[in-house]
Sequence to fold (164 residues):
Amino acid sequence: RDPDIHGFLPLKGKVFNVSGESLTDIASNKVIQDITNALGLVIGSKADRSKLRYGKVKIATDMDHDGSAICGLLINFFYNLWPELFQDKEDPFIEVFMTPFIIASKNKERKYWYGKNYHEFNPEDWKGWAITRAKGLGTLTEQDWDYSLKSPEVQPIYDDGNLK
Fold:
């Protein structure tokens, strides 16, 4: 990573479901405290993007059901407390950082397929290549992270007016 532009906050513990919870209970959660402190967000106050410590949040989770649930809980947290962070469709603050789902490697060459195009992967076309199903973030090598950070695949999250 480039520390001048990338910051990482590995979350330890369960992401708190903030729906229906009091601001006091939300603010007392350690994972929530870590996130708000890292970004400069204040629970109970509107977010001003120009005053936050980072220009964007990119959520990276394991590519499985648990990872999807964690991602949903994080989006729910941000949207419930700071819906203004979801207003800019042209420059969204929250993005889901997609990591490779399938990695084929042979010698020093690597090919990547993501959730959006993994159906295009045909193992018969890659005989002689080592194939990895990259289920978790821990599966990714330094080379995979380097590729992902230099050529990010992201899904922007913004309020299109259809949230209910």
In short: The first helix runs from residue 23 to 27. The mean pLDDT is 90. Residues 22 and 28 are 10 Å apart (CA to CA).
